[in-house]
Write a structure and sequence with these properties.
By secondary structure, the chain is an alpha/beta fold. The protein has two domains: 372 residues, ANL, N-terminal domain (Rossmann fold, 3-Layer(aba) Sandwich), CATH 3.40.50.12780; 101 residues, GMP Synthetase, Chain A, domain 3 (2-Layer Sandwich). 30% of the residues lie in helices and 27% in strands. It contains 16 helices and 25 strands. The strands form five sheets. Strands 2-1-10-9-11-12-13-14-15-20-19-17-16 form a 13-stranded mixed β-sheet, sandwiched between helices. A four-stranded parallel β-sheet has the order 4-3-5-6. The longest helix has 17 residues. It is globular, with a radius of gyration of 23 Å. The protein starts with a helix and ends with a helix.
């Protein structure tokens, strides 16, 4: 198997594959044939720098065509791609380099300076020289005949509870994205798909271009930072048919964007953390479209979602993908690794999972129709006076108040109840203080069960998050006990 032959070469050479928009607004369309040729040339440059089958190639590139070409060059030759977020700091870059031992790192010169000594590098300027057809180039590397278990991709976990760990995915991971691409992402032949996530995350590696191409759709790649007004303008101007965004982006658009109908937009999906029902309602009312939430982990790939053709249930992480098998044991969601074709091979530290059922660490419930409902991480559950309280329930209640932009709920120790709910709130409007805190508490009592209301309400300018946008609840818990 090889992604180049199995996916790219089945399309006509001139067929649009990718639309790129730079920081400066420069727009460019790329056909499948050009991507094949450019990535083939880059594979020759990698080989000339000593990259061989099974070696790791690390990238420090944002949402630019060079990132896509580097990934394709790796998969052409059987090298293993390690895409990294450009917002990483020196410690993050050093951790990844030490764990993966890359044979080459490709990226912007300033970011390459974060690497420890001894890692071979290739700047974006050098990549541009390879793409210059007027220059003499290395011969392209041959397309490798790869086994489904050969390494393809390394993705590091978000590090919400500790140091991130690198998860190695095999070649079969790429082809197996077809299930979620068709049944959850829902792209169709000839459409344009925009997965807005930054490079380096599980969702970007599978949904920015892999999943759209598996469905016969083109992909949009935008280099600019998130801006609510610009996001809506680009969706409208480019006539995007399917958009995949992080929950944080949907929340910010709901609070700060001027939502309006977008005739070309057919489907919206979200994954990364649970999406609050009230946000889905705002988009339903403003755009006439419902957001289809989904669930997956770095190690498992995408597992469940509000699937194509299913009723969207607000606040639910949907039903398992066709062919996938899950179960709930003592409240924890577990995934059958043998029925999960996107399951990872091992961690880079050599640790692998040999059991049948993968414990996700996520506490969920299931309704009579098989829809799954997220309650929180096992470590994040709040046990108060015998009640089990999921932080997501409290946060969702708070977000229905017009003064609240963001909220996080964590446990705080209490001598009588064991723990109580402590809420940290970022305001959209209003003045922080005791009066507003009491108002928010009463609001939660009305919206959620009274025992779930936050007995402690604090205000903050922002919430601590991982680079992928997940709230660092462990950090908030620690701050509340110090």
């Amino acid at each position: 198997m090889n992604f180049i032959e199995d996916v790219l070469e089945r399309f006509p050479s001139a067929r649009p594959a990718l639309v790129t928009i730079s920081n400066q607004g420069e727009r460019r369309e790329w056909g499948f044939g050009e991507l094949i040729a450019r990535s083939a040339g880059l594979s020759g440059a990698f080989a000339a720098r000593g990259v061989r089958r099974g070696d790791v190639v690390m990238t420090l590139i944002g949402n630019r065509v060079e990132w896509v070409l580097a990934m394709l060059a790796c998969w052409r030759t059987g090298a293993i791609a390690l895409p990294c977020n450009t917002q990483l700091r020196r410690h993050d870059v050093e951790l990844r380099a030490a764990a993966a031992n890359p044979a080459l790192c490709v990226g912007a010169e300033a970011l390459l300076g974060l690497l420890p000594g001894g890692v071979p590098t290739m700047t974006l300027g050098e990549v541009a020289e390879v793409m210059d057809e007027e220059r003499a180039q290395e011969a392209p590397a041959e397309i490798a005949d790869l086994h489904p278990t050969d390494g393809a991709l390394i993705v590091f976990t978000s590090g919400t509870t500790g140091e991130p760990r690198g998860a190695l995915h095999p070649q079969r991971y790429l082809a197996a994205q077809r299930t979620q691409a068709e049944h959850w992402l829902g792209a169709r032949e000839g459409e344009l798909v925009w997965c807005t996530t930054a490079t380096g995350w599980s969702k970007s590696a599978r949904n920015v271009f892999v999943a759209p191409w598996l469905c016969g759709a083109a992909a949009l790649l935008h280099e600019g930072r998130f801006d609510p007004a610009e996001r809506l303008e680009l969706l409208e101007r480019e006539r995007v048919n399917v958009v995949c965004q992080a929950p944080t982006e949907y929340r910010m658009l709901a609070k700060r964007g001027e939502l309006r109908p977008l005739p070309a937009l057919r489907r919206m999906v979200s994954a990364g953390e649970a999406l609050n029902p009230e946000v889905i309602e705002v988009f339903r009312d403003g755009l006439g479209r419902e957001i289809c939430d989904g669930y997956g982990q770095t190690e498992t790939g995408h597992v469940s979602g509000n699937l194509v053709g299913d009723e969207v249930r607000y606040g639910s992480m949907g039903r398992p993908l066709p062919g996938f098998e899950v179960r709930i044991i003592d409240g924890e969601l577990q995934v059958n690794r043998d029925r999960c074709p996107t399951f990872f091979s091992r961690y880079l530290d050599g640790d692998s999972f040999e059991g049948e059922w993968w414990p996700t660490g996520d506490v969920v419930s299931e309704d009579e129709d098989g829809y799954l409902w997220y309650e929180g991480r096992r470590d994040d559950l709040i046990l108060s006076a015998g009640y089990r309280i999921g932080p997501f329930e409290v946060e969702s209640a708070l977000l229905t108040h017009p003064a609240v932009a963001e909220a996080a709920a964590v446990a705080a120790p209490d001598p009588d109840r064991g723990s109580v709910v402590r809420a940290i709130v970022v305001l959209r409007q209003g003045e922080p203080g005791d009066a507003l805190a009491r108002q928010l508490q009463e609001h939660c009592k009305r919206v959620a069960a009274p025992y779930k209301f936050p007995r402690i309400v604090e205000f903050a300018d922002e919430l601590p998050k991982t680079a992928s946008g997940k709230i660092k609840r462990a950090e908030l818990r620690a701050a509340g006990t110090s």
